[in-house]
Amino acid sequence: MVFRNQFVNPINFGDAVVFEGKMDDVWHRPPWISSLLWLSSFVNILFPETGRNVPARLVISPLKTGDRRSVQRWRRTFRFPRVRRFNATVAYDARRRAVIESMGPAGMLETDWSVQFVAPDQMLIESRGAYLRIAFIRVPLPAVLTPRVRVVQTAVPGVPDTVNVHFSIRHVLLGEIFGYQGSFRGTRR
Fold this sequence. Notes:
mainly beta, globular, disordered N terminus, Lipocalin
């Protein structure tokens, strides 16, 4: 049921799917990468904070764009002493055969996602590439500038509407550089 609420069942305008929980661990390495994460926090992409038992929230709501496409707005909040957000719009692009997430000012950073259900209880979400978008021009970013992101969501047996999440970012030269894991409980509102 939790995956249907997030990925399958349409969300009516004025409604939202809200996931609330705690991240058991939020981390990054090597230490110097916190400077880059700090810069990215100014455009609500990532953040430099780390911690344990960090309250987190994801709100997914429908949105119509200026060209009348239906997309979802994903608003992620991590409650460190300084609240951090990273927000995006998400939509399926049939031509690219991928879920597209647009982040940053005016959606300038685009990530193509592969999303697949792995029976009996997992969703596997992996990045397939990233682009810098300026107006109608999309420029593919090279692998050295495009870390790979992997998200594994696992439904918790016997706990309705709850999912464990493991999010990690891997750089081609540095290995795993950022991640978090914890659990969310989803509700429709």
